[in-house]
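Exercise: predict the fold of this chain.
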Amino acid sequence: MMNHSSENKGNILLIEDLSDNLQLLSGLLLLGYHVRSVTNVKMARKILKAKHPDVIVLNINTSEVNCYQICQFIQRHQKLINIPIIFIVALDNGFDKIKAFQYGVTDYIIRPFYLNEVVTKLEMVLTIQRQKYFLEKEIKKRKKIEDILQNSRALILSVLNSSKDAIAAFQSIRHSKTRKIKDFRCLVVNPIFAKLFNRSQNDIIGKVGFKNLIAQINQEFFEDFVTVVETGESLEKDFYYPQEENCWYQLVAVKLEDGFAITVRDITVSKKFEIRLQEGNRQLQLIANLDGLTQVANRRCFNDYLKKQWEKHLQKQQPLTLIMIDIDYFKLYNDHYGHQQGDECIYRVAQGIAMIIKRPTDLVARYGGEEFAIILSNTKIEGGLIIADLIQSTIASFEMPHEKSKVNSSVTLSIGISCLTPDHHTSLEDLIGNADKALYEAKNQGRDRIVSF
């Protein structure tokens, strides 16, 4: 019903004697209405069952038609009950208006009539029908949308309440003048989120107070959420918040209109595993870079670190100092005291050197056998000489016996120092070579001494 082309102004069922309705039928057809005409009740019922008209025009003076019988038939059928009925009555008929309206008649036309009058009545009724049709269609459409929304809400609530993550959504509360965000009102929150703050859902939903709520975790977090709303950039961070057995959480916040949605996930298990893994990796890295005997850096670590420091000092144009150290007559020491005592000697010398080198940018390494190397960042040759002198005096203070030494009765050191400010005319090998030459010269001059190159 009410779904016809632009040429068809409406479907009309005309119930009247054919001889009387010919003029009306012709006029309506010429004006663009689709008109079907019948002269008796049987034909009227047949048409009404087959195709529903938009309007029924019924002449109550038709001899073959009981007009109220037609009205009763229409009233009994739900699909027909809303079709408007217009009676055509004679001026002197004694027409019972109240009875007609009780039988569902919409309007009436008094004979004799003009075609324009009939058209006006028809258009009024059809306009109402069209509005009614579109209104019903809109109601059905909205009802369908409401059902979808209701189902969506139910689904969302089901997901929220069954989720193992803490989930909530908040709306901005702004200053009336400055429009700056002063707090947030909770729109929705699931049980896990409420439990995270030791609250019930009713304590949080609809309430303003997110600022105080999030301060339980970290006061600085509030500004992070303000930034999410004002910039639209998402927020993701891990945080420590001890609660019973759980303590590590990950939060993700995204802008939601003039507010944000937040998900908080318990990552305690994975975080503890990550920490253990990091610690394990750190220990492995430490083992990989440490000399097993002396517990100072090994040769591999020395090579890597010296290369990095060279590049750094080249960029900053700062002096880099390298100290090479050798235990005097160590082979004789080892042969006389044995390998176990020899290892103890190397260990004590390494620890004595490490006592002097305290800056985190410097490095002590076992270079090989009884040789050690020290990298001093941003240090001139004068500084290197001071450090070397401190090392010699420290080892001397240990008074480790060395009966086979040809220079002293205790363990002594030969030390070579080199210093370069890296540039494009020098290389890392120059620094090492110079330190090695200085150490060779210290030995050549009689050992137990410091030589710089």
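Check your answer against the key: The CA atoms of residues 322 and 432 lie 7 Å apart.
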